[in-house]
Amino acid sequence: MTEELLMLDSTTGDGKAEIVMDYIISYTLRSSANSDMPKFKKAARAILFKLLDVKEEGQEIVSVKVWKQWRQIDLTVEVILRKNGVEKKYAILIEDKYYTAPHDNQLARYKEIFDSYYSDEFQKRYVLITAIYPGDKNFDRCYSNVARDGFTVYSLNELLPVTQGHTESDIFNQFWLTDWH
Prior knowledge:
Shape: globular
Oligomer: single chain
Strand order of the largest sheet: 1-2-3-4-5
């Protein structure tokens, strides 16, 4: 794995990896609606629909808006989909973790903030994205209690769509296909 190239800061050694994850996940999700690069857009759409837990077929993405660090939540995503002339609104709370576990009742607090802001007009999803792979001895230790807070856990590798090679986005290719494949 070449994650040291993208995820590590040579001056401190810690890399602020979760900031990089925030940026690239945000970029990927926003591109699912707005990219003019067909292979990249297809891959980005696959990731978005997996996070929404919605079948992609026949869905038009009307808009995707992403906020980073709103009220300390890593990513807050609003999505509007249209199918057969009917629009549906979704809100996704995304917490990402590089090689750490949630702490200090973090997920429950963020969910409460998120739920108090988003009305029932939105279908809500709560997601934790991690760099730790299922099967790794730390996966269960770090994330065994996440479901009790209503969150679905995905490793970066689980989100990666099956692609026919690299996309037109070098940023996407480096992060999703080189570092996490």
